[in-house]
TrEMBL record:
Designated name of the protein: non-specific serine/threonine protein kinase
Signal peptide range in chain numbering: 1-26
Membrane topology annotation: Single-pass type I membrane protein
Record GO terms (molecular function): polysaccharide binding; protein serine/threonine kinase activity
Principal cellular location given in the protein's record: membrane
Record keywords, A-Z: Glycoprotein, Membrane, Receptor, Signal, Transmembrane, Transmembrane helix
EC number, as in UniProt: 2.7.11.1
Classification via InterPro entries: WAK_assoc_C (IPR032872), WAK_GUB (IPR025287)
Residues in Wall-associated receptor kinase galacturonan-binding domain copies: 33-96
GO terms for cellular component: membrane
Subcellular location(s) per record: Membrane
Amino acid sequence: MYYLSTSCLVFFFHFTLFHNLPCATSKQRLGWCEALFQCGNITAGFPFWGGNRSKPCGHPLLKLHCNKNITSLNILNHEYNVFDIDQTSNTLRLAREDLLGSFCSVTFNTTTLPPQIFELSPTYKSLTVLYNCDPKTSHGSSYTCPALGHFSMSQSLDHHNSCQNNFTVNVPLSFFPNERDLNLTHLESALRNGFEVKLVIDEIPCQECSSTSGICGFNSTTQICCNVTSPPGRDSCVPQHKPSGKFPNLLVSHFCFFKVQIYVFSSS
């Protein structure tokens, strides 16, 4: 007759305990995705994460931060204040944190919003700031900052050869820097009010997931739908879009898909 030896019992106990732990963590992490990010007057759910929402709950580039009731978003190592999130229209109003103060005191640099995530609202436009310009040859609206030299603004790079550097800012369509002497107060006000972008993330997969009592999440940049109503150890997450690779790179570290039990028998 075969019995389970003491050593095998210990092995089996530790193996089962170790293997069930990720499943428990899965339930806990997915449960957090039902919570909303809240900070000041900002409330947000999918596809954002941060605060009470863990990383698998949102897109990697959409982590929200809260500091003294001010919401911010770090995009490619640049900080943006988030003034408004409308999840009905999937729009945000953002402002570059480094452009909230005096324009002449900023460090001029170019920031780019990832086009796979953000799309500039049609009620806004991009203007080029040309700086370290030759005042004798620059064109369009111009101004001189004591520490930064002569700069001008244009909707094109037609006259960039007379300037050493440039970067872009987003302003309302109603902002026209056509006057010869740039009104710096109007420019600073436009930058402080921020600009609007639309998220280009597809909403339909998450709507379909929610209709089946699933929870929306992300595996890297792939939308997934997770079922947490299954018995313990059988939580499942499936990609909502077919990934570009041959096999989906699912979040094994965060979600558990199946449980394996090994029974080892030995003679006494």
